[in-house]
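Encode chain A's predicted structure.
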Amino acid sequence: MTRKIASIVALTAATLLAACAAPDPGPRGPVVAERPGVEHARYGYVRDIDVIAEASRPSGAGAVLGAVIGGVVGNQIGSGTGRAVATGAGVIGGAIVGNQIEKRNRRDDEVFRVTVRLPAENDRILAALGAAPEPATARSALVLRTTGETALRIALDLDGRGRARIGTGVGFLDHLLTLFAFHGGLDLDLLAGGDLEVDEHHTVEDVLAALGDAVSGALDGRVGVARYGSATVPMDEARATAAVDLVRRPHAEVAIAFRGDRVGGLAVTLLPHALERFAIQAGLTLHVDAAGEDDHHVAEAAFKALGRALRAACSIEGAGAGSTKGAL
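Encoded structure for chain A:
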């Protein structure tokens, strides 16, 4: 019996010591490309940069196995009243050693996750880390634009749920773009800063131009889209009509009849030209007509109609091009 006990002790000790002395396996492969889809209660996606350190815990399998081995050895070694003490000590000691062995070999405590709002931005983080993200299926785009007059960042998802976070420094422009995103059924995250100490001209024009770039990027090959879209939106006494053609012949006809020069902090006279820039950068044909007694209502109706017309034009109808030419 003594020889049997000695053999068990020797075998157990050799196994545990060998596991503890095993070479460090190092990181388990490359960075994993994941899109966790963390959502914010209001904006629909995380705000700013969300870095989550995942110091993962061992699964417990090593501790259980170690406890079983330790308990068996303790039970065999002990005798009489000391057997219970030896068994308990073996269970505790085995669990501690087994847990440490598993933790050492897992190396999961070095895992971390970085999430930055939308998939297009996550892809940039993954690329910087040397990971190869899966091909994005969403029709989305990320635009970064910096000039001597403005700096802005736009993340756009055409297949969204009408969620928006807008910050341009021009309150009424933020309001109009929020309406555009909601009625367009798209997710829009737009932050911009400009030389507002001069006036809002550069900010308004650059924001609409970059928004057009984002739409163009999200549409990519424009295969399978409806191509045409139109909408008429009444807003009390005002009414606006917008028509969109996604053909790659940029053109704009904008006739918005404003009675005054400003609504809040926005010179509404800037909007027709800004919408022309949007159409040019997006590579589409745009017609917008709006009129009414209240300039606030006129502008709102125009951007609501534009959102709904664009939504219809971007909707998926099939797999081919919406033209007898075979391409848009």
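The radius of gyration is 31 Å.
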